[in-house]
Amino acid sequence: MAVVEKNQIYEGRVVDLTHEGHGVIKRERYPIFVPQALTDEIIRYKVIKVNKKFGFGKLVEVIKESEHRAVPPCEYYQKCGGCQLQHLSYHAQLDMKREQVVNLFHRKGKMTDVKIHQTIGMADPWHYRNKTQIPVGKTKEDDIKMGFYRQRSHDIIDMETCLIQDDRQNEVMRYIKKLIHDYRIEPYNEQQHRGLLRHIVMRKGYYTDDLMIIFVINGKTLPYASEIIQSLTQTFSEISSIKINCHREKTNVIMGATSYTLYGKDYIEDTLNDICFEISDLSFYQINVTQTQKLYNIAVNYAQLTGSEIVLDAYCGIGTIALAMASQANHVYGVEVVPEAIEDAKRNALRNGYANTTFVAGTAEQVILDWQRQGIQPDVVTVDPPRKGCDITFIETLKELAPERIVYVSCNPSTQLRDIQLLEDDYQLIEMTPVDMFPHTTHVETVALIQRVK
Ligand code: SAH
Prior knowledge:
With 454 residues, the protein is of the alpha/beta class. It has helices spanning 90-108, 167-182, 225-235, 289-303, 320-326, 339-351, 364-373, 392-401, 413-422, and strands at residues 9-13, 16-17, 22-27, 30-35, 42-50, 55-64, 115-116, 131-138, 144-146, 197-204, 211-217, 239-246, 258-264, 267-272, 275-280, 310-314, 331-336, 357-361, 380-383, 405-410, 427-435, 445-452. Helices cover 24% and strands 30% of the residues. The protein has an 8-stranded mixed beta sheet with strand order 7-21-22-20-19-16-17-18, with helices on both faces. A 6-stranded mixed beta sheet has the order 1-5-6-4-3-2, with no helix packed on it. Strands 9-8-10-11-12-13 form a 6-stranded mixed beta sheet, with helices on one face. The mean pLDDT is 96. S-adenosyl-L-homocysteine is lined by residues 284, 286, 315-317, 320-321, 335-338, 341, 363-364, 384-386.
């Protein structure tokens, strides 16, 4: 006999919060996960799913509230899958993110000596996203809808505004919605793989105000392009680039592999800690600029450069970390898989006068081997891989290269732990700082200092 039954309502005390932000209730040790419930709350919940080892519940009523409960200011919060933590006070979100890192590294990884600092938060944690990616679809009544996806689905919630997105981009989003409607541009239909307009992507320079708009289309050309360009650029003077991204694949990936410029420049510009960057549409760029600057400052600190070091920056994107280090190093080598990003990195190095840099396009695992064969001996290696972490062959070569220090920036502390454990024989993790790059979501970014011991 199961300890809970589907569709029944129960009462219980929340004993923990998962890294996905779900409250945990235990009934005779059987865990039930309840989204939007907080630790120490007494709640009523309806069981909606009963698996063998755990169940899921829906919050019905909070009987005793946590002192950290906050009123979510966003009207779409209950439906939208974009944020998960608006019901938790910002201060408690920062504690929760640190706790997640502590759980992984101190408890799971048994690295109890590692100093884990408090999460570095934002003074004003709203409207921080400099990049918008909005799917376009149709309502039942055949009107245009634009917004984010419902939780765990691809159903678009029609939205007027998003509180974590740059507010000017919200305005542009509403304006574009009207243009799409007026010019009768057909939204893309995912199920049928038909229709034209898939996503509107926008990117903005935080310090420059440069705004790039990308129409991601299932085709080659946008109808009424010149009218649309004129209308947009006359209304929003900060638009410095309008692009078409051609994307005909049947996939969830937002952008296709090719794009061309309809108006203005091929890239936007921005500055990070007084270094200027050109950023083209296919290159990765951190979405929260104020926090990125703090993150890079910690990375530079952890690198402890004196001017004589050879530095390798793996997964370097447009060269942001590499150039943050370049003034304090002898030479910096960067590697990145997206060729356009490497072209950006080379231009960015030139623009800022860093001749002591070399950027190579390719996978980190391959290029680091090439560098090893060329006899390059790094003193410091920085890595900043995507969520899946580093390739095992990359870690093996890294061990052979034996740099004095490794600075590991990660957007997924579980793969970061896995990779650091692979280095354990030769290296010791000294300290870590979580930086809140994505307030109100459960995403955690960390930077770690790893020191050679052998
Ligand atoms: N350090 C940069 C980019 C970090 S994002 C910054 O802070 O802006 C991770 C980057 O790794 C992306 O640019 C992605 O294109 C790149 N990447 C993904 N897999 C890779 C691989 N196997 N080798 C090299 N780069 C890779």
